[in-house]
Specification:
By secondary structure, the protein is of the alpha+beta class. It contains 4 helices and 3 strands. It has a 3-stranded antiparallel sheet, with no helix packed on it.
């Protein structure tokens, strides 16, 4: 499994040529494309992220908000009064 992760990391690297990566690791290009497709599907599935509720000192701010830190550095705060559909749409858009 460790080899597979290394092969996928190289196959997803910017400018990587899948056939060259496959040749270097002696795997078929079809297998490598299958692994890439499976990895992309896994990334698209919902995942749990750390979230915390915080209060704001400002009187004009929403009393509570959800804060989510994405791995890419984006930080999102959503007020407690925000509709669930809106919060979900924001999370999907920023994945």
């Amino acid at each position: 499994m460790e080899d597979r992760a290394q092969i996928l990391a190289e196959a997803f690297a910017p400018g990587a040529v899948v056939s060259e990566v496959a040749r270097r690791f002696e795997v078929s290009t079809g297998l490598l494309y299958t692994w890439r497709r499976q990895a992309l599907v896994q990334q698209a599935e919902p995942a749990f992220v750390q979230a915390k509720l915080v209060g704001f000192a400002s009187s004009d701010a929403v009393e509570l908000a959800m804060t989510v830190d994405f791995p890419n550095g984006v930080k999102v705060r959503i007020g407690s009064a925000a509709p669930c559909d809106l919060a979900a749409a924001i999370m999907r858009a920023l994945q």
